Amino acid sequence: MIRKKAPVIPADETTIRGFSEAFFESVLDAIEHSPTDLDGLLGNLHEADIADIIERLPRDKRQIVLGHIPFERMGDVIAELEEGVREHVLQLLNPADLKGALEELESDDAADVARSIDEMIPEHEEGEGEDYLADYQHKRLLHYDEDTAGGLMQLEVLTAPPTQTVGETLEFIRKNEAEMPVKPGTIFVVTPQRKLLGTVSISRIVRVPFEAKLQDVMRPDPLFALPEQPHTEIVSIFEKYDIHNLAVVNKRGQLLGRITIDDILDVVLEDTARQQARAVGLNEAEDLFAPVLTTARQRLPWLGINLLTAVAASAVIALFEDSIAKLTTLAVLMPIVASMGGNATTQTQTVIIRALALGQITRQNAVELLKKEFLSGGYVGTLLALLMALGCWLLYGQPMLALVIAVATVANHLFAALGGYFVPMMLKRAGYDPAISTGVLTTTITDVGGFFVFLGLATLLLL
Amino acid sequence: MIRKKAPVIPADETTIRGFSEAFFESVLDAIEHSPTDLDGLLGNLHEADIADIIERLPRDKRQIVLGHIPFERMGDVIAELEEGVREHVLQLLNPADLKGALEELESDDAADVARSIDEMIPEHEEGEGEDYLADYQHKRLLHYDEDTAGGLMQLEVLTAPPTQTVGETLEFIRKNEAEMPVKPGTIFVVTPQRKLLGTVSISRIVRVPFEAKLQDVMRPDPLFALPEQPHTEIVSIFEKYDIHNLAVVNKRGQLLGRITIDDILDVVLEDTARQQARAVGLNEAEDLFAPVLTTARQRLPWLGINLLTAVAASAVIALFEDSIAKLTTLAVLMPIVASMGGNATTQTQTVIIRALALGQITRQNAVELLKKEFLSGGYVGTLLALLMALGCWLLYGQPMLALVIAVATVANHLFAALGGYFVPMMLKRAGYDPAISTGVLTTTITDVGGFFVFLGLATLLLL
Asked: Domain A11-143, what fold?
């Protein structure tokens, strides 16, 4: 090991990152028995880890931990919390402390927390989050929708004029160290009117000759986003072109701010969680320890909708009650037909939803794709139908019953393919997120269709 | 606009990024009528966009486009393709061309494509992907599992000794421009034995005094990963600490390579897609235009498993065939009870699977969480039970039937909560990915449980 001299410049932040289950237990222990120990325990921890600890704590213990987070770190801790827990923590803090905490944050994080404050406050007082932001510029960020480029943007950017040399730029950065964004990443080359001309990454500027002008080493037609663009488009740009910074400009091409890749990573992870949650009628990032009644209230509407679809399926069965009375075997077999169709449609819709999200479906290939899904559904349905028919025949010794279940199975797989294809396509066209609402509709289609075809055919052919 | 002089240094890559539907149509047109136009059309396009075009093309048109991609860009195009389409393209290329294409790639991308080649080749010839890599170092990367830090790592890193000054480091970078990684990002400070001492980001090195030694400005206890660590852990590190580069070291602390945030973004997006696909028994990134038989063959096993669970539910119904014969209304109502339980369990399992993935469930809070889910299930179940009972009473005028359906609904919601809680917990403990296998098991539990409780209670109380 090399011996260290006293550092000339303070080294990079040196907080400990990560914690063990044993450490978490000592935090719990300190909360119960000696809260002052929390200062030491949390002192060296990264803000993201403190946020993690708060998320894992039952709600009644959180206040105690909050009391031992120093004022200047509170903002970062709040910014790192998941939505559900963040709302709980915001309620526990007093407005003055909260306002102070937000002043320590970079513009995008400050706006993000201010949005959470807004969401907690009843509709008619909307805009209250704004009051917590001291900086006028930061307030402006709140006007952008959260799910747009504007909502992801931060105002801290490093700009330079096109005629400045590489050497001058590097000298400027060194001299103005204190005012630099934490991670400048990219130099945005702009006119005096802030019109974006090009970009030079820091990785590039350390490699090109000092005397070169920025306009000669910059990427002259930089990628950019407009503030209204939905964040899914922004994610695609980052993913495709492996960039670390993206300029956000207004319609006149003037630089408003930038989006950084670490925020994009957070967005992608949050989005995935949110979509998975919403697809089953949950609030995005549910607080694990939300009160039972809150949890139940959030979950009920989606269950209610599903109850309606179940009732619809039941109504179809009710149509054929007489047939069932004559041949109760139908009641035994009917859930199989419906359930198989439901599973098949899930596969098709998963493929279609993803292809839609990636924009892979074009006017040219849409028909091709439908044909493929339909044929594949027919093929799979036929194989399963043969299996079912064989089983029925062996079990019940009724060839006609075997025929009925076979035909119903094939028909229901064809329904399933059509439903799995058309439902997400139509939802998308109507402006809904197919990832969220497809499931309920396709399940209804295959349930209703499955019961109808099976019981209907049975009534026609067997009774 | 500023007039540009002839550039001193070639500007950053200036390919056009993105393409319109109209552009895609002109590509289709060129394929049909004048393939030589493809050179011009694809010439200025970014490799990621060329990959996008290939993914959208029906399989029989892909070969023609491949013939118009210049040799030195082929590797990058292949690296950008989704798994399913990539395998198809690899089959279309001859081995010599493929080998040449891989030489143009950075180590991690080269290893990634070599892994795809491996996957296409029957088991007994495994290791063939290695033969396509010219560089011995690159071959070594193949020994790491794809889903580990080693599998994500690239070998191109910028290292420096601790006693080197900032000024010397910057001079070294400038002088050795040609050998630098495309995006150095971070300087890894190492001993002559490559033992990792610290890191200095490029964003930081342009801000500290020239005469400072690296050891005085570096982050002295840098985050690192071991090559065996699963990639989900690596993603968490990037997400939590907002880093752009992560060192990978061996057990002796020697630097092996690094992982970059743009690869992490790709991994997260791929992982999400893969998990969604696998949860419904699909191959990760299915080629939209795979032949019907391939698609059907891939989808059949999961449907087969689900058929078995449906048969299990049917077997329960069969137990009560006599009861149904006496009271066919039971056949009408039974799917409602089962379906409601299925939906409730989906909500609980979604919450638990996510909490497990984030490591939020600890020994301390596990019981608390179970209690919350159970109570919430009971509460929701009771509300829905009252609704169901009321509906039944109004519709059929049978108070006992209403009672039966109410009790069965509550019981099934409690089952649902327990299943949604314990199944993912046990799968995780047994080493399976709960996101993939939970659904099939919980559905079986709520189907079987739902039918059993409802029909059993009805038999006891009504008949």
From this structure: MgtE N-terminal fold (1.25.60)
What Å distances lie between residue B206 and A190, A313, B28, B61, CA to CA? 21, 67, 48, 49
Q: Which CATH number fits domain A158-278: 3.30.499.10, 3.40.50.620, 3.10.580.10, 2.40.10.10?
A: 3.10.580.10
For B245, nearest residue in chain A (alpha carbons): A262
Q: Name every chain A residue with its beta carbon within 8 A of the beta carbon of B369.
A: 288-289
Give me the phi and psi of B71, to 5 degrees please. Answer: -45, -45
Contact A217 B8 (CB under 8 A): yes
pLDDT tens, residue by residue, A148-183: 999 999 999 999 999 999 999 999 998 887 778 878
| Percent of the residues in chain A that have a pLDDT greater than 90, as a whole number | 50
CATH number of B292-462: 1.10.357.20
Amino acid A1: pLDDT: 33
| Mean pLDDT of all residues in B328-333 | 93
Residue A324: closest C-alpha in chain B: B328
Quick: pLDDT tens for A173-224: 988 877 788 788 899 999 999 999 999 999 889 988 899 999 999 988 888 9
- Taking only the tens place, the pLDDT of each residue in A287-312 is 777 888 888 888 888 999 999 989 99
User: What is the model's pTM?
Assistant: 0.83
Q: Got the DSSP string for B201-259?
A: EHHHHTTS-TTSBHHHHSBSS--EE-TTSBHHHHHHHHHHHT-SEEEEE-TT-BEEEEE
Strands (DSSP E) contained in A67-113 are: none
- Taking an 8 Å cut-off on Cβ atoms, the answer to whether A282 and B350 are in contact is yes
Interface test with A, best of B2, B163, B164, B193 (most A CBs within 10 A): B2
**Under an 8 A CB cutoff, do B296 and A380 touch?**
yes
Which residue is closest to A338 within chain B, CA to CA? B310
Other CB atoms within a 10 A radius of the CB of residue A318 amount to 17
A–B interface: beta-carbon pairs under 8 A: 393
Contacts of B310 in chain A (CB under 8 A): 335-336, 339-340
